[in-house]
Amino acid sequence: MPAVPAHVDGFSKLPAELLITIAESCLGDSDGYFTGILFFSQVNKRLRRVILDTSHLWTAFGIGQGKITHHYAQLCIERSKSLPLKVSLSTFGCSDLPRLRYSVCEVLQPVTERIRSLETYLSAYRELQVVKEILKILNLPNLEEIDLDYDTMFFDGPDRTITLADGGAMLRTLSLTGVLITNPNLRSLKSLTLGGGTRPLWNGSNISQLIEASVSLETLTFIGTEMTFDTMEASPEFDLSCSSLLRLSMLGVAPNFIYRLLFTLQAPVLEWVHVETPPIEHVGAEVDWMEAIGQFEDIYGAATSPFSKVRSLTINPSYDGACAQDNEGFFCFLMTAFPDIYSLQLNAAEIDALDFSNGDGVWLGDWVLLREVTVTGVSVRSTFMRVMSFAQVRNGASAGSDDREASSVSENEEDRLVDGTAQDRTAEGSELDDHDDKLFTEVERIVMKRSKTADPAIDHMVQALRTLVRVVEVA
Asked: In this structure, how many other beta carbons lie within 10 angstroms of the beta carbon of residue 459?
């Protein structure tokens, strides 16, 4: 291959801003253990000069066992000037943990006030003890984000608590797996994620303690294995009150935890919920969702819900082999708990669960205010046919017809459904046995995220769907 002439240098003609953008996209969310920025700076002299002069490219780095990581951390500290730092601490596989503690503190002690983010993954109890000592020595007074992941299948230790400076008063984002904070003072916290790991830890008492300390919390996420949070079943009754909570996610948790949480949580301004369907195999008591609906209505009334402000619901499948019909009761419960949603996102694998009412196609039960539907993982014609049936029922038109009948509610009627007395909606629903007679908002937008398959029949269905719905997007 002939040598490339020395004068051919595309980098020399690109503006510095574009080179920085290229570097940022290549580095992505690298945690710093892989010295991508160092390799990137060797590509070209001009690119190296731009990278060395761009301080924010050096603000994230990792530190762990080995002098090379300490050298890299020092480079990042120097080249990032006075900018805030994001640090990833690695203890995995370290044979000399006391030495690691000393060297990490030696490198980071001079810049403790600049550290805004810290994350670490721990797989052994002795690693947890070293991290606790490092946090105690460094103090980290301006820490805004911390991710502590302690996940072990073996001895988890007698003390899984960690103490933060001032109880984490400056924290805005907190993620905990397998550890507890002893002195929570989370007055600035906006986002809280609680993971389960391989050994259950959370119960009503310590969850309540964290949420009670998080007076400004807006996002709450529970993530875990099937056995996560099953200690809730044996815990005493508790109250979870969070007046500022806007977003709630429950991913991979046991069904009895979803049940207990939604019966306990008081979140008057909650707007968005993300949940996974219950897995087939799980540890803990089974939940009879139809019985749960009756209990829910006994507590809150047949036409009211403590989550009446929720407008967006995302439902993902658990990917454990469950078929949609296995979750019909769960979907019924979601309709009862979140009756006034405007937007629904679900996977094509779950869409059959919404066809349990009359067998004529998906009409999404009593979600009368629903105006936007997103279906992901679409690959077969039957999914499009069900969505078509749903659009026909909700928008009061037949396929190929451009006129929509007056079956959608007016703005005044919608206000009555949301803010008026719930008794009106209950009486109305009890008098009407046929879903065609119900008052629905008109669906305005349908998004279909299809798999990469070519099927002309599906393309024809999309065109027909566009005669029923104002906005149809196929990604």
From this structure: 11
What is the rounded CA–CA span in Å between residue 421 and residue 290? 25
Give the largest CA-CA distance in the chain: 83
Determine how many CB atoms are found less than 10 A away from the CB of residue 409. Answer: 18
Distance (Å, whole) CA 229 – CA 256: 9
Q: Mind listing the pLDDT tens digit for each residue in 265-313?
A: 999 999 999 999 887 766 667 889 999 999 998 888 766 789 999 999 9
- What are the φ and ψ backbone dihedral angles of 79, each rounded to 5 degrees? -80, -15
pTM > 0.85 = no
H or E segment and range at residue 343: strand 343-347
Query: What pLDDT does residue 439 have?
Result: 62
Which stretches of 139-275 are DSSP H helices?
Answer: 204-213, 255-264
**Structure tokens belonging to residue 6:** 């020395």
Question: DSSP string covering 391-430, please?
Answer: HHHHHT--TT-----TTBPPHHHHHHHHHS-HHHHHHHHH
CA–CA distances in Å: residue 361 to residues 40, 230, 473: 54, 36, 21
